Amino acid sequence: HLDSSKDSSSLSLAYASIGDDGCNAIARYMRENVMLRTIDLRGNSIRADGLVVLAHALKSADAVSSLCMKWNHIGSHERGMQALCDVLKSNQTMTHLDLRNNKVGPECGRILGELVRE
Predict the structure, then answer these.
(1) Mean pLDDT of the chain
(2) Which of 7, 22, 52, 63 could form a disulfide with 83 if both were Cys (CB 3.0 to 4.6 A apart)?
(3) What are the distances in angstroms from CA 59 to CA 4, 56, 63, 101, 116?
(4) Do the strands 38-40 and 66-68 form a parallel or antiparallel pair, or are they unpaired?
C-alpha cells in the first residue's frame, strides 16, 4: 500500500500490472514523498498516457535520481516520450533512466536523441 511508505527513498512496483490507470496513484505518491529517489516500474504495461502522468509528477519530484521504465509500452507514441524528455531537460537530479525494451519507434528515437544532444 503506497500510503504506508510515505518516507521511503525507493518505490518498486516491478511487474505489478498497474498499467496507465495505476500511474495516477504513483504520480500522487511521487508528489507527496519528498524522500523518493528511486522508482522501478518495469513490466507494467504503461503506455503513453501513463508516461505523460508520470512525467508531470516528475516536475515536482525533483529528488528522483533513478527511473526504471523498461519492458513497458512507451516507445510507440511520441506524446509520452516528449512529455518525459521535456521534464528531463530541466531536471538536475536524474542520473539513471532505463527505457530498454519499449519498442522505441523512429519518432520517439528522434525525441530521445534530441535530449541526449542537449
Answers:
(1) 93
(2) 52
(3) 23, 5, 10, 25, 19
(4) parallel
